[in-house]
Amino acid sequence: MNSSNPGNINIVLACDDNYARWMGMVILSALQKAENPEQFCFFIIDGGIKDKNKEIIGSIVNKYAGTLLWVVPDNGNYNDLPVKRYGLAAYYRLSLATLLPGSIDRVIYLDSDMLVAADLAELWRTSLSGAVIGAVENLGVPPKSLNLPQNEYFNSGTLLIDLKQWREDDYESQLFSLFEKKGSELQFPDQDALNLIFEKQWKRLPLRWNIQPATWAKYEKKKITNSGYSYDDYEEAIKNPGVIHFLAKSKPWFYSTLHPYKSVYITLFNESAWRYDIFSQVAIKEKFRKFFSVEKLIKNNKRKKYSAEVTFKN
Ligand SMILES: [Mn+2]
Fold first, then answer.
1. 269, part of any domain
2. Which of 79, 236, 259, 279 counts the highest number of beta carbons within 10 A?
3. Ligand 1 ion: nearby residues, β-carbon < 5 Å
4. Which pLDDT score is estimated for 22?
5. Ligand 1 centre from 111 Cα, in Å?
């Protein structure tokens, strides 16, 4: 396989064994939505995924004739980093240049708490207009310490990266020396470091490629405030979703979450080899967390109705 072949669409994911099945859903949905899934090449930065889960992921990719490469990071390189609740896997994306073959010059990075609702070939073909990194604005207040206006802080769940330029300018060293200096002050270490390094230099991607839970609430207010996207951008995301991001507490595998695409996610999951497991990792305390109010239930049903229908076949 020639990995610099323009026919290849390189997608990078990273997780540990706890997230392997959710990462599998990102891969499965991406392949199902692709017109040419055989062009998809997945690089998985493996933070200790067990063989059983690797086999299932391998058989998903095989079924669609895609390519799968496991990349094993050296955890010793991350010893001095503030790990916090995100774990090491959050840092792996920052070592892309070292971990991926030198012939790879463009990648899409995706978080593992997502559902792909459109052909990623469209995202792949998006111009970066000379920027090293493309991303979607984070729809929320940025950490105060960063001193960034709300519409200039991006979410690192979906990234389109010019890896060639990334290597040439050695952003990897810049990121890790930033960690050495002020890593422990950062609220979301990896996302904040990326924002500091690429301040005012990132390319804004269409909102539909990283649809965060706040998208619906902002859209419903009609007048968009505190966002670099227009009302039409929000509408496009709702009517033509690209990647749905189950950010923070909106994870579809939590019992008590409400999300317009939760049932779509569970249906897809139940078609996979993991099907009996969906709530198995849920902590007991989460099972008994207070349930959503009727108002929230009604609101969520409304959102489901006006949002685009996303379906997966076979
Ligand atoms: Mn995420």
1. no
2. 259
3. 111, 113, 157
4. 96
5. 5
Residue 137 lies in a domain: yes
CA 35–ligand 1 middle distance (angstroms): 25
Domain with residue 148: its CATH number is 3.90.550.10
Is 282 a domain residue? no
Cα dihedral value 169, 123, 98, 6, nearest 10 = -90
Q: Rounded to whole angstroms, how far apart are CA atoms 80 and 83? A: 9
Q: Cα–Cα distance between 139 and 136 in angstroms, integer? A: 9
- Domain span including residue 110: 9-247
- For the chain, 314 residues long, the average pLDDT of each consecutive 10-residue run is 63 94 98 97 96 97 97 79 66 89 96 98 97 97 91 97 97 89 81 94 98 97 92 98 95 89 95 79 58 85 98 84
- pTM comes to 0.93
Name residues whose C-beta falls within 8 Å of residue 56's C-beta, 6 or more positions apart in sequence: 21, 24, 272, 273, 274
| CA 312 to ligand 1 center in whole angstroms | 22
Ligand 1 centroid distance, CA of 271 (Å) = 23
CA of 201 to the centre of ligand 1 (A): 22
